[in-house]
Amino acid sequence: MSNIVTADLTPPRAFDQACHMVVDYLAGSLPMGAWAVTRVAGERQTVLVSDDHGFGLEPGVEGKWTMSICRTMVSGETPRVVPDTGSEPALCDVVATAAENGMPVAAYVGTPILFPDGDLFGTVIGINPEPLDAGFVTNESLLDLLSSLLSSVLEADTNAVQSARELERAVSDSETDSLTGLLNRRGWERWLSREEERFRRFGDPACVVMMDLDGLKRVNDTEGHDAGDVYLRRTAETLRSVTRRGDPLARLGGDEFAMVATVGPEDAGPLVARLQEALDAAGTPCSAGVAHVGIASGFAEAVAEADARMYDDKRARRVSR
């Protein structure tokens, strides 16, 4: 027991703090090539926190869930503790692919982190370049205890965030566009600033969509600004009808709109197509661009990338007309 590090038992107040505490404790108590906490969303697994020694598991690194050792653990195909991955036929393909990518995984440890409803949030994972002693399986109960701690902190932190969001919505009149009822530019920028840390903490999938209406100037010039106001309100109503509740929508000014959608990169293209189809049907067509929000790069880079893609789309739409 001399190699066991005494844990700091002060209750963590946020999920990211708890993740760092767990990874630091495991790295000190049960040294391996890498320990990490990951987020699983859709078809992607993203590293949130890590203690890495040569595996490249830095925060923000993403991989395909279908090719993850953790997937076999969560599905029950393989044990939570595998001292020698060569002894598990179900891991042959995954381990071989990892080795080809310069990541020799000879031992694996994993345990799930769950949402309150039992759905999978992510995993605690440990990997080692050499096999471990068979007796390492006795640590499974400790790993389950730590993942249960993270699940509990996740629930408390998620509830606190939701309460804070509801309070923010109740006091945000100064950040609302009076014409459309959407966030104005001030509200949009404050939302991004406020939520940046939360997205990094939980690793939620998200993308930014920037939109620019194609016909507002024509309506204003030919039918007057009252008709233009109706056009803008109809745009806002249409966007609300095809947007998930809680995903922020903003009118940044003039004919510019923006949103953050809680979807992964594989769903970003279909989302934009659905938005443009709905706006076309409403008679308020728009040019649009979308970009994935990375844990490392954050919202600012995604906004700039989506804005550039929106202007590319606008130019392409002009050529096609």
From TrEMBL:
A Pfam family recorded for this sequence: GGDEF
Superkingdom, natural source: Bacteria
Annotated InterPro entries: Diguanylate_Cyclase, GAF, GGDEF_dom, Nucleotide_cyclase, Rev_trsase/Diguanyl_cyclase
Domain GGDEF: residue ranges: 204-321
Matches recorded under PROSITE patterns: GGDEF
Protein's name in the database: GGDEF domain-containing protein
